[in-house]
Structure formats: C-alpha cells, structure tokens
UniProtKB/TrEMBL annotation:
<dbReference type="InterPro" id="IPR000595">
    <property type="entry name" value="cNMP-bd_dom"/>
</dbReference>
<protein>
    <submittedName>
        <fullName>Crp/Fnr family transcriptional regulator</fullName>
    </submittedName>
</protein>
<dbReference type="InterPro" id="IPR018490">
    <property type="entry name" value="cNMP-bd_dom_sf"/>
</dbReference>
<dbReference type="InterPro" id="IPR014710">
    <property type="entry name" value="RmlC-like_jellyroll"/>
</dbReference>
<dbReference type="Pfam" id="PF00027">
    <property type="entry name" value="cNMP_binding"/>
</dbReference>
<feature type="domain" description="Cyclic nucleotide-binding">
    <location>
        <begin position="34"/>
        <end position="116"/>
    </location>
</feature>
Amino acid sequence: MLEWLRAQFSLSAEQWQRYAPGFTRLEVPARTLLLRENDIAKRAFFIEKGCLRVWFNNQGKDTTFQFFFEHQSVSSFESFRQHTPSLFSIETIEPCVVWWLAREDAYRLLAELSELPEMREKLAGMMFDRIRHYSEHCLSFIRDTPKQRYQQLLAKNPQVVLRVPQHYIASYLGISTVHLSRIKR
C-alpha cells in the first residue's frame, strides 16, 4: 500500500523517505467509527482493504451519503483543513485495513506537493470529483425517482450493491429498506 501511495503522490524515493514514517497502518473491525460527527478531524485515511461509509445523524436516524472502497482516501476535509467540528461520521462497514496520516504530516506533504504542477492538478481533480459526486447525489433527490437512483447506483458503482448492507443502501437512496426491496423486485 505504501508503494501505491508513493505512486499516487509522484514522489521520488528520497522525498518519500521523509513522509513514509508518517503513515500508520490500522486494522479495524466492521462498524468502527474512525471519525465521530462533531469531532475535529485530525487524520486523513487511505483505504488498503475494506469499505467505509460517511453518514450523519438526521433527527435520530443515520443518513448515509457516500461509500469508499480500496485505494480511495477519506476524511472530513473541511474539518481537517479548518479545524472545525466534522459534519459527519466515518465508519467501517467491513473489516478494514487503512493507513492514516496526521494533519500536521499531511500539511507538510501537501506543501511539498503543491510545488509540482502535475500533483496540484491531481489533487484538484480529486476534489472536483468529490464535489461532482455530492452535486450529482443531491440533484438526484430533486430530479430522479428512488428507482432511478437505484439504477444509477447499479450502473455507476455496482460494488456498493455487492458489498454494502441493504439498510445502508436504502439510507443512501433516501428510502426505507422495504421500498428498496420493492424496487429490486
């Protein structure tokens, strides 16, 4: 995983030696909170193995709004950057192996990476992809029926249906598990 991360950051072996010790491997069981809503994010996570969900408490109900899988990164970036309470929780769905990087180490790494034009472009692309996902998901609640949202999920991210429990998928789609069962039939 560390070699994959090094390749993602486009760092030489010498540069990587300064940052590699900052990455910590963590094995966690399913249903482990890596970040609790309203806590300040102090770590960025990189997923080696497993599936995570991002959710918030909506009047006593969990509302899932994104899933993350192998070779993706996740954090409450607003909280991480601004040192403000996180708007959501990050929780493992499956047993996971993640690598985390502390805020201070991440900022040192980003300072060096910002000098590399191709890395600036890659980081900007990652942020725009995340914003696009949120925008599409939000608009789908205005524009699409629950059945259309489910069909889009199958088309764009079929691994969610294969690996994520039905109640999280239903929450993500904004429907009950009973409604999801009807749609699937």
